[in-house]
Specification:
This protein has 2 domains: about 150 residues, no CATH class; about 70 residues, no CATH class. The chain is built from 10 helices and 3 strands; from the N terminus they run H-H-H-H-H-H-H-E-E-H-E-H-H. About 65% of the residues lie in helices and about 5% in strands.
Length: about 280
């Protein structure tokens, strides 16, 4: 069962557009080669057009992007090497767009390895067809193109990762606002807030303690990442000066920061518990 074009993912659409455009662009060359009776050119063009169109059909009917992206990169590189071997150095300039496209079609490391093999074989097939002035510059241009494409690929991956993380944070914030706006229970709102904070600070273990109705004790409102034995031990803790960081903060109505729990006097009675829970600061 095929998926309508407008319902496909962006990756789907891009690969379909590339393979479809490549098929249309290369098809006239196949027709001209057949009309000219050039068997060598015809074979190369048949491999190129047939392979790319087969990939187009594979993406269209299966949407298996990673698989067919890899096949497309492999077919493109093999086809151009066959073309260079059959027709000579006149086709070597097609190596440039293939180098660039490989970083879109393949994972960065694999693309780099594939391009290294492509450049090596292409240069080996053509080194006798260029003079001593041109050949080193062609090699240098291949290397520079591969290097720039690699840098740009890594840059775009980092940029996409940042955008993805930012989008994830926005989704968490929106989820919290929706819970608040819908008057959800604190048992849902507080864990959502904690998950949002822990998502932004991966090494943090967060908790929210609530003051009881009499204003004398702290109750665990939410602490999904902390051990149950720790939460049970601090639940109902009396508010007062010098009693951990939470009770001190509630008592003084000020922010309390403890860089080293193990050496802080307010945590002496909780040393064994904090060590067991592997808590270092708060």
């Amino acid at each position: 069962m095929t998926v309508k074009f407008q319902h496909r993912t962006l990756e789907d659409k891009i690969l379909l557009a590339i393979t479809g455009a490549a098929t249309l662009v290369l098809s006239p060359f196949l027709v001209l080669s057949i009309l000219a009776g050039d068997i060598a050119n015809s074979l190369v063009d048949v491999v190129a057009v047939g392979g790319i169109f087969a990939i187009f059909l594979g993406v269209w009917f299966t949407s298996r992007i990673k698989l067919f992206s890899g096949i497309f990169a492999f077919v493109a590189q093999v086809t151009i090497l066959i073309g260079i071997h059959v027709k000579g150095a006149g086709l070597i300039y097609w190596v440039f767009p293939i180098i660039i496209a490989s970083f879109y079609l393949l994972p960065t490391l694999i693309a780099s390895l594939f391009n290294f093999v492509l450049i090596t074989i292409a240069c080996f097939l053509t080194f006798q067809q260029f003079d001593s002035f041109t050949f080193p510059r062609i090699i240098a241009s291949f290397v520079v193109t591969n290097l720039f494409s690699l840098i740009f690929s890594v840059f775009m991956q980092n940029k996409n990762r940042q955008l993805s993380n930012k989008d994830k944070v926005n989704q968490i914030h929106n989820n919290i606002l929706e819970l608040i706006a819908s008057s959800s229970k604190l048992s849902k709102i507080l864990p959502a807030i904690i998950n949002g904070i822990e998502n932004e600070i991966p090494n943090a273990l967060c908790s929210v303690l609530l003051v009881d109705k009499k204003g004398r004790r702290l109750l665990v409102g939410a602490a999904p990442s902390l051990p149950n034995y720790y939460n049970q031990a601090i639940d109902g803790l009396t508010i007062g000066h010098g009693i951990g960081a939470w009770a001190e903060a509630a008592f003084s109505s000020k922010r309390v920061v403890v860089p080293d729990i193990a050496s802080h006097p307010g945590w002496v009675d909780w040393t064994e518990l904090t060590q067991k829970a592997q808590l270092a600061s708060c």
